[in-house]
Amino acid sequence: MTVRGDDFTEAVIAVVESIPPGEISTYGEVAAEAGFPGAARAVGNLLRTTPGLPWWRVITATGRLVPHHEREHAQRLRAEGITVNKGKVIMGRLP
DNA sequence: TATCTGACGATAG
DNA sequence: CCTATCGCCAGAT
After folding, report:
1. Domain ranges, residue A25
2. Element (H, E) at A95
């Protein structure tokens, strides 16, 4: 489908909403899935300006939680059953 | 139209 | 682990 005019916004929202509970994704992954690889920053802006989205399921590529929201973020992730440790998310790869 | 901003990413030091 | 710098993109002013 030719992603309609809104493309970016609609696509990113759809991808973020499609993230299953207990799973997480990164800004870069969401951007690429939405069809805008490299637009990780734009994704962050969209999640910030678009309420109602499970933004807590989206973290930075380094496994770091969203800056300025670590507290809120970690708490939400824990509620989803995601393991958080010292502001970082465990992605099935332990040291 | 131009410029700045930002819930980014990667690399370098 | 931290900060600094560059590249990237879309939105806001």
Report:
1. 8-89
2. none
**Per-residue pLDDT at A92:** 47
In whole angstroms, give the CA distance from residue A2 to residue A79.
36
Strand B nucleotides, any atom under 7 Å to a protein CB: 5-10
Say how many domains are in chain A.
1
Q: Is residue A30 part of a domain?
A: yes
CB < 7 A contacts with chain C (nucleic strand): A 8-9, 36, 38-42, 45-46, 49
pTM to 2 decimal places: 0.88
pLDDT tens per residue across span A12-33: 999 999 999 999 999 999 999 9
The CATH number that applies at residue A69 is 1.10.10.10
